[in-house]
Amino acid sequence: QVQLVESGGGLVQAGGSLRLSCIASGRTFSSYGMGWFRQAPGKEREFVAAITWNGGITYYADSVKGRFALSADNAKSTVYLQMNGLKPEDTAVYYCAAKTLGVNLVVRYGYNYWGQGTQVTVSS
């Protein structure tokens, strides 16, 4: 089992920044990497960014490239999503997830552990 706890969401004006954190506990060694997904009202949950525990290789959705940066602190089993240049369309609940099946971090399949989500609201 892997437990995930997100924090750092909130309300910010367009152009502002937020940093989300996700602390993993339990059998974290069983996960290949960590991902962030988001879900806006009435929309499907979509991939945002991901990182491998080994090597810190990162992946980003095209919609956030150049604005979001993902990093990991292996010693603390924590991943950080720095979000800059936020836009109203970034408004969503953001979920942290642990990938335990497969190695393709961009797809939702294989993310078997999820956090409770943190709300990010960007006002125009």
Please outline the helices and strands.
Layout: E1 2-7, E2 10-13, E3 18-26, E4 33-39, E5 46-52, E6 58-60, E7 68-73, E8 78-83, E9 92-99, E10 111-114, E11 118-123
Parallel strand pairs: 2-11
Antiparallel strand pairs: 1-3, 3-8, 4-5, 4-9, 5-6, 7-8, 9-10, 9-11
Unreliable stretches, pLDDT < 50, 5 or more residues?
none
Main sheet, how many strands, which sense, barrel?
A: 7 strands, mixed
| CA distance, first residue to last residue | 40 Å
Shape: globular
How much is the radius of gyration in Å?
13 Å
Element-by-element helix/strand order: EEEEEEEEEEE
Portion of residues within helices: under 10%
- Strand content range: over 45%
DSSP summary: helix tally: 0
The counted number of beta strands is 11
Give the overall average pLDDT.
94
Could you say which structural class the secondary elements and strand pairing correspond to?
Answer: mainly beta
